[in-house]
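User: Hi! I'm working on a homework problem where we have to compare a predicted structure to a textbook description. Could you give me the structure for the chain below?
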Amino acid sequence: MSVVLPYRLRSTRPLLRLSLLLSLSASPLLTSTSWAEDVARRSYQVPASSLGAALTRFAGLAGVDLSVDPALVNGRDSAGLSGEFAVEEGFAQLLQDSGLQLQAVDEQAYTVTPAPEQDGSTHQLPATVVLGGSSEAIEQEYAGGQVSRRSSLGMLGDGDFMEAPFSLTSYTSDTVKNQQVRTLGDLVASDPSVRTTNPAGGRFEQFSIRGFSLFNSDVALGGLYGILPTYSIDMEMVERVDIIKGPGALLGGIVPRGSVGGNINLEPKRAGDQPLTELTGSYASAGQFGGAVDIGRRFGEVQRFGVRFNGVRQSGDTEWDRQQVEREASVIGLDLREERVRLSLDLGRSERQTDAPLERVGVAAGVKMPKAEDISRNFAQPWTVTNTKDTFGAVRGEFDLSDSLMVYAAAGARKGNYDFRRHEVKVTNDAGDFTITPRDFRRDEEVKTATVGLRSWFNTGSVGHTLNLSLNRFEMDFDNAGERFAKGNSNIYQPIVLPEPGQPNRFDTSTHTENRFTSLALADTLSFADDRVLLTLGARLQRVEVESWSNGVRDEPVYDEQATSPAVGLVVKVTDRLSLYSNYMEGLSEGQTAPTSAANANQIFAPVRSKQVEAGAKYDLGTFAVTTSVFRIEQPSYLFDAQNNFKPDGELRNQGLELSVFGEPARGVRLLGGVMLLDSEQTKTTAEEFDGKRGTGAPVVNANLGAEWDIDSLHGLTLTARAIHTSSQYLDAANEQKIDGWERYDLGARYAFKVGDSPVTVRATVENVLDKTYWASAATSADSAAGLTLSTPRTWLLSTTIGF
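Assistant: Happy to help. Predicted structure tokens:
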């Protein structure tokens, strides 16, 4: 008995039947390649799923007739597809390695038969079309392998970058390995819209996207916020890094720390169909040595069970005197792939200790900006230390109720314990003097989050629909406590080593905060004109509840606010290579908390709303892509008043232009980079005091360009280079304190070869080749007023990866 696929079928044609023989000993797909030259190609996106669901989806998108006997495709999976295909080419990709082949029986009507044995009269699909038979093919790397065509679009599922109604870039695990990335801060250096706004040798990482702060708490793991380590994220566990610009309330729910410039999502590694065992040894100047292991295996019938383990340990001296970093992390990922069910579990543990972590540098009003080039030593006291421990996990599941309806659920949790001994650095005169107030700070966090949803594909007449419904819940409880000690004095140019603190002379207020975020979202992506026009309409109903206690007494007010955030996205595929898009999005997020340096430290403010409007174009040449966008984001802003109180004041409006490039424009030459022009303006400030002034930490120009060049004369050798530029920035709201622009240059090489049957890759990189010292950022920190971020000295990175 055959079943009709749930897509539009032409009534004048008879129902076709797929008469397939189920075979576990599948042979390679054998098919003609003439379509690649003679048939028009279109852009398609079919998510990884059961083979029956993938065939169903593609048939509907292509507008062809197909019927399927469920027994014939039972137990088979498909990696899906994303990109430009002719109809027969797309079916062939979906059927690859299934032992089945496509057969045309009428105009725009098809059946499937067992593939013949490979002999002299048949030939395999050419390598230019095959994306691979393993699960790694799901990532579908763009030409050059540095970025992925696919990105996680939250509740909208995974999608091709050409069909997404916003600006995004997804970096692959190959980029992570080849750039010798250790933390997320190392990776974002490739993106012109993103900058790191805390010292690399500091207590935590913090970023800026389109001029707005983003914290590690706002980085998602597989779409779940808040379950990754709060202060620094190790990258050895990551398969793909998605950076999506603009408010993402519709996509993933309420962002814990309220980031509105963009979102970052990390996709965990999964075991591929081929066994994997890789060992990596690494060195980073001035004396950090480390090792990492990456092991992946699949088991069971049709390799349904997968295990992927990643572990890393690194320790030693950094480029800064008296500073040592020790980090270790381990993550295991388990997954199950059935015909209609996909399950996964990720469990991780991360620990990091940094001695003498570098602090951001505050500057008192009226004081000349310190000269970064005159700083040659670590101004953090040698007895300062950062200890962070995070245990986290996530479980996910998808179930295909039918070929046109899927339900899914995910839940995650994290427990973090953080113990710091630190001091602030605020320069009080032109000589570079600052007062040291040692402080012990302890923070404990517990996070629980979950999401459930459904996704359905159907047609109403000639209009296709992808309907998404999602319910999200996020809970975070955290406790802060600490002590302070007797003050001392030092200087950023000539640091003075003070005795380690003795008994505390003051105990900080113990605080307990509970955040409860709940949201319900509904979105429908409508497709018109043979999927040339994609219109996404959606809204998310959000509720933010925040309660806090100080020394056991509940603070007032208690915030409990609701809002509905609409979102509209439009994609018009003018040609198979050119897409135009636009969007309007709103978001609701928790209000900021006054930093510990403020007179009203730890005060929590009301939730705030943000708005974005954006338009852009994406041009895909097949091996090289260019994307451009113009955007405008508005969000309430905060500042310090004359009494050092941190409070809301006015609105920050950032608008700008982005241009990104990636791919392989010539054989063996790869480019990755772009430019962002940013116009940042404060508006609606009290008494119009700062109206028209630029926002703090908002450069006019960010520019990046990375290049790789394969040397033909020595197979396996690749030379690399990267240039990064950031223009001047203001430290204060009055725009009276300014840092100069800066440039950084990196050079490197890697050599891939084999020793017997074992692949070996040796990598060498020099970051900041010219060893320039500069202020890299002048942004507001997570726990202090606006401060200056000192650049990292010249750094040597070496690693060797051996596969078995």
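For your comparison, note the following. The chain is about 5% helix and 55% strand. The first strand starts at residue 3 and ends at 4. Good luck with the assignment!
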